[in-house]
Amino acid sequence: MSEKFDNAILHTPFQSLHVNTQNFLRLKSLEYRLSFSEIRNLIEIAIDLQMWNEPSLQEIWIDDTQKKKILLHVKNFYETTKLKPKSYPQNPTLKTEHKIKFSTVAKESLGLGSCPVASPKTRCCNLMTLDAVESCGFDCSYCSIQSFYNQNTITFDKNFAQKLSSLKLDPNKRYHIGTGQSSDSLMWGNKEGVLEALFTFAKANPNVILEFKTKSHNISYLLENEIPKNIIATWSLNPQTIIDNEEHFSASLEERIKSARALADIGVLVGFHFHPIIVYEGYEKEYEAIVNKLLESFTCKEVALVSMGTLTFIKPVLKKLRQRAIDSKILQMPLTDASGKLSYPLQIK
Ligand code: SF4
Prior knowledge:
Layout: H1 2-8, H2 19-31, H3 36-51, H4 57-60, H5 67-83, E1 101-105, E2 112-114, E3 127-130, E4 133-134, E5 139-140, E6 153-157, H6 160-166, E7 175-178, H7 194-204, E8 208-214, H8 220-224, E9 231-236, H9 240-246, E10 247-248, H10 253-265, E11 270-277, H11 283-297, E12 303-310, E13 312-313, H12 315-324, E14 336-338, E15 341-343
Parallel strand pairs: 1-6, 3-7, 7-8, 8-9, 9-11, 11-12
Antiparallel strand pairs: 2-3, 4-6, 5-10, 13-15, 14-15
Helix pairs in contact: 1-3, 3-5, 6-7
The structure holds iron/sulfur cluster (SF4).
The site of iron/sulfur cluster (SF4) has 10 residues, from strand 5.
């Protein structure tokens, strides 16, 4: 029986559970002869409840002679908790410790391609993504890149400028290229000459709209250098509640809007992404307040784009999040299939 348990916990976030929960689950799996899949389901439920700061598995467990009844009770509690709008604390403890390393390598090729979201099932805006830097120094709980880069190592390509200058684009075509897919576009400033290379590229290719998408307020390089007209700077915006709880280490909402205003003041076109829009207690009021703030602060002519998108996960991100077991309510939501990804049901969207 113990061997079955040890096999069932392989490749699960079992080790990220609090020790008390681990011991409880081990004990109950022996007592009730839980099956392989029952153990795995309970691990997933237990880790989610732990991340959401809800009562633990042992707190909701009610012993019964019928295993079915116990499991049904646990499942019902979990589903009800998952479906209720999440409620964030007023004064969350902000994360402070974040160790990151830098590495500079000679990459084989330039990371330029179609946006990964493009598929026959999506209506594409034809954005192309350019991986100027790999991995990010912010730590948004919902971010996809945690599942494909080593999160603590930020990688620069030492031949980035050279590769970019040799890139041949069709002069008769218009391109929309963004650098905010594999990292934040501005948080590193001009480290390793990244922004300088991108400015040179934008100047040489006026048929490119080059978008810097960011959650930072590091705009000093843009304030100190002449910015090519085809560069636009865009900010992902979320209410401060979400920034405090789910977008760790990023600039505050006020700092983001102030930075956008500072660039608009020197004639740079700016834009705003309401992405991901997250449903929680009070979200309608807080998103509306942002919209009103933008309407007060910018004219239509200063704003190149406003986009909207809801929270969507690729499956490896769910796995990574549960392994990390950080304090986060991000997965406390109904998750339904959205063309192979997971997102809110259409009704909520
Ligand atoms: S700022 Fe963007 S790239 Fe960085 S962690 Fe957040 S979502 Fe990911």
